Amino acid sequence: AMASKESWRAWMAGPSRELERLLTAEYERTKSWSFTCEVCHLPMQDPRGHLCGQKHLSALRRTAKTQQLFVLAQGRYMFDHLTGELKPVTGEAEQEEPVAQNATCAQPAAALPPATDAMASKESWRAWMAGPSRELERLLTAEYERTKSWSFTCEVCHLPMQDPRGHLCGQKHLSALRRTAKTQQLFVLAQGRYMFDHLTGELKPVTGEAEQEEPVAQNATCAQPAAALPPATDAMASKES
């Protein structure tokens, strides 16, 4: 999987989402985001983007240290930067020291502004939507793992939503949201029906009939994720992989 940046990105897409989901849950508990990549020795403000990126791949090729221990409020977890394996640690971890939780990096706002105030600037909107977009991406990723189909559309922008977090936090989506009164979107998934509010970020299961929205079209035209991922070692072979 290390042979090219494309194969590495495909290989690490799922594991990086799972680690991001875990770290996001930790932030929701502690209101502190100070995670560091022990391969690159850099703040990991965007886990998925960082772990799938060329710089991280290059650093991984130069080190024998691939495992990293995360000591969190919810438990101890070992993440392997090469294989993508993420597992809870029940005893003493031998290979790594706990991740420094005071790494120098931008802290999320201690308190987020009301939704309407958050739309004042792209910076405040990105901070406001960071958590909710991660949660929606986690839900849609779980759906893809069940169905092997990724065809979700943003009903505010009427565009394919291949990268939920990047799309929902972006300037184009914010501009479209300012022009519409339609903020709620119903996702009809194999795991259930969920309503997402594009303004407040609220995501909740729908048990009865949803009144405000029609189900999301599941056949939107967009690129399908790779059906099968290559072995990890193959993905690291070259800079262009």
From TrEMBL:
Source domain of life: Eukaryota
The protein's name in its UniProt record: Uncharacterized protein
Species: Pyrodinium bahamense
Lineage: Eukaryota, Sar, Alveolata, Dinophyceae, Gonyaulacales
